[in-house]
Design brief:
about 375 residues; Aspartate Aminotransferase, domain 1; Aspartate Aminotransferase, domain 2; 7-stranded mixed β-sheet; about 45% helix; binds pyridoxal-5'-phosphate
Length: about 375
């Protein structure tokens, strides 16, 4: 097709080309990738539940009962008692009256924002929000305003100056490419002052932060009155697949009526819901998984600082080493890969120009030895120049 080859070549030359690796093992720190054994530090399976025997067994049992395909959308015949029980468990877990399952987090964000925002409304988003929130804003009929990252002052000015129309503030709870937290107590105050709705996408906080893994809201001690819209994903900390929105009766009923990415799509498999019920219980009860993560993070940060690495500020399992140029980030990532360590290089447009970085993520299943190997390899990197 005319023009595509040149565009791809330009991208390659800029060090921005993306390509896939083929994995032939289950999700765990030791993977076989493109036929080679590597230790991965780039999965979002923070609690190490993606490959848990009890979760696998639940999926298998439920597939025997419900089959694989759900056959239809939730509003036709796709909504089983397994989905329903999972929604009830998620509502209870998040301390809200209701929860609604979506097939993916991307679709949940699309669904919420398009269902709640109409023409003339105002949508306020953090500059570093996840692409799915940004795309949702672009597709909605609302006017989207982006405020400076984690900066309530910048948001306050925009709220005051942007006129009338229902306001919705939408933010990541934990920023996926920076690992830092949204300043939620200040956002709650602003939402109150300006009568705005507040939505938190806690894809990376749920299961990981707070008591029982209640996420960023539990970390800050915020409830459903303060943050009326909570979106969570199931494919990260909970180790399965899918997403949900939790909130009031009216919020969930509104989404069932109007969220197009909920209505016009096949329900996820019932067996997946059964598997998630098990992983949710494990995530909640097995506190050692969160403690293990915290000890890996503490040891990593302490050693990285000693090595003089350009470490970014983060208390979460998402840890960043700033490279600057895309080429530097890519060179570092390739150097690590030669030593059998898989760490992603995050480049524009995922992050701002000039702020390419290595993104290291930890799982409760990483061993001390694996962390030592990473630190040893990072020590040799700091001397590489591009
Ligand atoms: C991963 C992610 C999503 C998308 O969730 P999926 O279930 O993978 O589609 C949405 N928001 C944030 C902040 C994420 O990190």
């Amino acid at each position: 097709m005319k023009g595509l080859a040149e565009a791809l070549q330009t991208r390659r030359q800029a060090g921005l080309y993306r390509s896939r690796r083929v994995v032939s093992t289950a999700q765990q720190p030791e993977l076989v990738v493109d036929g080679k054994r590597v230790t991965a530090f780039c999965s979002n399976d923070y609690l190490g539940l993606a490959n848990h025997p009890d979760v696998i067994a639940a999926l298998q049992r439920a597939a025997a009962d419900y089959g694989v395909g759900s056959g239809a959308a939730h509003l036709i015949t796709g909504h089983t008692d397994a989905h329903h029980r999972l929604e009830e468990a998620l509502a209870e877990y998040t301390g809200r009256p209701r929860a609604l399952l979506f097939s993916t987090g991307y679709m949940a964000n699309m669904g919420v924002i398009s269902a709640l925002m109409k023409q003339g409304d105002r949508l306020f988003e953090d500059r570093l929000n996840h692409a799915s929130l940004v795309d949702a804003g672009q597709l909605s009929r609302a006017r989207m305003l982006r405020y400076q990252h984690a900066d309530p002052e910048s948001l306050g000015i925009q709220l005051a100056r942007s006129g009338e129309g229902q306001a919705l503030i939408a933010t990541d709870g934990v920023f996926s490419m920076d690992g830092d937290l949204a300043p939620l107590p200040a956002l709650v105050e602003l939402a109150r002052t300006h009568q705005a709705w507040l939505m938190v996408d806690d894809a990376h906080g749920l299961g990981v932060l707070g008591a029982e893994g209640g996420g960023v809201l539990s970390h800050f001690g915020l409830d459903g009155d303060e943050v009326p819209i909570l979106m969570g994903t199931l494919g990260k900390g909970f180790g399965t697949y899918g997403a949900f929105v939790a909130g009031s009766e009216e919020l969930i009923e509104t989404l069932i009526q109007h969220a197009r990415s909920y209505i016009y799509t096949t329900a996820p498999p019932a067996a997946l819901a059964e598997a998630t019920l098990v992983s949710l219980r494990l995530a909640r009860q097995e506190t050692w998984r969160r403690e293990r993560l915290q000890s890996l993070i503490a040891r990593f940060r302490q050693s990285a600082v000693q090595l003089g690495l350009p470490l970014m500020d983060s208390m979460t399992p998402i840890q960043l080493i700033l490279a600057g140029s895309s080429r530097q980030a890519l060179a570092w990532s390739l150097q690590l890969e030669k030593q059998g360590l898989l760490v992603s290089a995050i480049r524009p447009p995922t992050v701002a120009e000039g702020s390419a970085r290595l993104r290291i993520t930890f799982s409760a299943k990483h061993t001390d030895r694996q962390l030592d190997r990473l630190l040893d390899a990072l020590a040799t990197l700091s001397q590489v120049a591009v």
